[in-house]
Amino acid sequence: METIDIGRLLRNKNPRLARWVPRFVVRWIERLVRLEKINHVLSTYGAQPPMDFIRSTLEYIGVTYTVHGAERIPQGSRVIFASNHPLGGLDGLMLAEAVAPYVPEVKVIVNDLLMNLEPLAPIFVPVNKYGAQSTDYARRLVEMYESDAAVITFPAGLCSRLIRGEITDPPWRRNFAQKAWESGRLVVPVYIEGRNSMFFYRFERLRKALGIKLNLGTVLLPKEMFDQKGKHLDIYIGEPVELTTEHTVKEWGGIIRERAYGLRPIP
């Protein structure tokens, strides 16, 4: 199984920028993203099928979870699972494994950088977060929505932030509701309980205060993932929603978000 090389990844993603990035910066990024641990997981478990790979990865990290409301997942219907995004990566792995026994196939919409995780490429469908979509990416999205596969999406597009003292998603994009409408899919709201470190939230607050538009916090997410060691998380599945003409697509987007956050247990 091919491991990840940060230098090569930079060259493939942005060759012009890669020429100007010094080697010591690349080494610093490698340490920051816990590349040694990531490559250990890829080397050790990379030959496994996607769901087995996810299971092995979660065991290696040392994180467990409980699913609440799995009986609400509709049988025989095409669905989109629309979830909050508290962790920025680990939550997607858990949700994919959690719903897999109840659906014919699972597809997860991800940042195209994650396609470098080859064992998960069969269940990942890439989108370019920082540029125009390629013809290939657009084709894959169309094929996904036309298939019977269950789709997992995180409509915020970013992981949760500390906003006015509460850890919550940035505004959800309505694209998921539009796609559900166009493809005739039910939408299943999901709430995942979890949080990253205060360092991550402070870093993001500082980035925003400095006016830095590039989502630098993404670089911290692998560290945050491995730092979940020993945690037990909860996934709450809501009732499926059929999008009707009663509301506009934009309104449905807001309604689904409200229903997802409404699944939070009362303290």
TrEMBL record:
Molecular function (Gene Ontology), one example: acyltransferase activity
What range(s) does the Putative acyltransferase ACT14924-like acyltransferase domain occupy? 8-261
Domain of life of the organism encoding this protein: Bacteria
Q: Keywords for this entry? A: Acyltransferase, Transferase
Q: What is this protein called?
A: 1-acyl-sn-glycerol-3-phosphate acyltransferase
InterPro entries linked to this entry: ACT14924-like_Acyltransf_dom
Q: Kindly give the Pfam families that the UniProt entry links to this protein.
A: Acyltransf_2 (PF19576)
